[in-house]
Amino acid sequence: MTERRRVGLVGAGWVTAYHLHAWQQLADRIEVVAIADPAPATAQRRAEAFGIAAVYPDARAMLDNERLDIIDIAAPREFHAELVALGAGRGLDIICQKPLATTFDAAAAVVAGVPTTVRLMVQENWRFRAWYRRLRSWLDAGLAGEVRQVSLQFLSSGMLLMDGQRPALVRQPFFRRQPRLLVMEVLIHQLDTLRFLLGEMEVVAARLERSNDDIVAEDIASVTLRCQRNGALVQLTGNLAVHGEPPAPSDRLRILGSRGTLELDGNRLLAFGPTPRQETFDADATYQGSYDAAIAHFLDSLETGAAFETAPEDNLRTLRLVEDIYALAQFDPERKPL
Question: Is 196 helix (H, G, I), strand (E, B) or coil?
């Protein structure tokens, strides 16, 4: 039997449960041998839940004491650049939670500093969701024809006060201090997925606002993009303070084409036109499944030598859109919330 690759995980936050479940599905090919996090109790709970033998207070200690083949970086984004550099310096293959850094320029510097002998993939799993893979197959099959107009909404009530608390800040307290919030932390997923579905785009216009004083950055965004291939316009709307929406957001996507309309509403995917179709997905299974599929793709590509779908060079194109949105919007955190 081929020896299993040894994986070290950096981070023990809520997202790491999804990472570890995905790695468990590949237990015949890998072994997660260590986890590192500055919160020892949190790291210990993760280790006990997933049968991880060793716990360390930081990534450097883990790398100094463990023989690893892969490092999975799921720490806060402000630490991604230094952690990628640390792993690359040890010659490890790396999968890093998006984004590679807090700005486009910093991410480009990270990519430039990784030697060619190191395989690096960005953990951008939104495009791996089952409904988006199916939607891409419908587009490739011509169900929409020529794409003429696209709208994608990501709406939530998570930033509204409910019983004295904002659900989005209860679930992810770090949102409070992020200097770049909705676009860099959330809509980066939708931008990457739109690129996956429609090809390269450019930002035409952008407006960012915030709804409350409990955060320092934007939680409202309106962005217009143009598809480079045919000039079709794409409207991307994000708002985390919408009355009438549930705290847990979902995507609402409509692709209007010359031959048909394709629509995603939460977990329902529909096609209207000469070839009508409808498919409903299990939302929870699809969420975990996106992590499973992304991490399996990473490991498969390591074994075959194939290119990563979300290679750093590809992800930089998504980050370029993010940077252009912030540049165009000129968001001022000192401006009074709406």
Answer: helix
